[in-house]
Amino acid sequence: MRTIHLIVIHCSATKENDTLTEMELEKSHRQRGLNGTGYHYYIRKNGDIKNTRPIRKPGAHARGHNTSSIAICYEGGLNRHGVPKDTRTEWQKHSMIVLLKTLLIDFPKCHICGHRDLPQMADDNLQVEPESWLEECPCFDTAREYGYLQEGRF
Fold first, then answer.
1. Lowest pLDDT segment from 45-49, 64-68, 93-97, 98-102
2. What share of the chain is helix, strand, coil (3-state, %, to 5)?
3. From CA 103, how far away is CA 130, in angstroms rounded?
């Protein structure tokens, strides 16, 4: 089993008035050259938690952090005009807490963070993604929202 230090939360960058199924997410990741969905879990707007990648397999979601992390992505993250916004439904918020609590039982020393909270790492060509500094993903403050979980107060 991999050594896991991080749980990284992402948004799918889907407009709040659109949907993105787990199949569409996988298709878009494959079109970008990935070998399937890069996230381990995907939370739909109705709160359904989809297993999209085995935990034993490193993710493809945060360059330089994939081997030691688990990735959770929620459907949404943009308003109707494509501007970053916390669009999580109440169902998604509930499912996220349930999933995080479950993962922290198996990986109690994990740090929970948002994609935007990670330092950007260079790729094999020593290049950093040009828009990496613009990242707002997951469009909410994970430390404020889930910090109590890391302190064992749940």
1. 64-68
2. 30, 20, 55
3. 32
Which of these, 58, 50, 53, 71, lies nearest to 137 by C-alpha position? Answer: 71
| Buried residues in 97-120 as b, exposed as e (16+ CB within 10 A) | eebbeebbeebeebebbbbbbbee
Instruction: Name residue 47's amino acid.
Output: G
pLDDT, tens digit, 9 for 90 and up, residues 70-95: 999 999 999 999 999 999 999 999 99
Do residues 87 and 73 lie in contact, with contact meaning Cβ atoms separated by under 8 Å? no
Strands 77-78 and 41-43: unpaired
Domains of the chain: 6-150 (3.40.80.10)
Closest CA to 12 of 78, 76, 62, 87: 76
Residue with tokens 């479950």: 102
* Number of neighbouring beta carbons within 10 Å of residue 36: 14
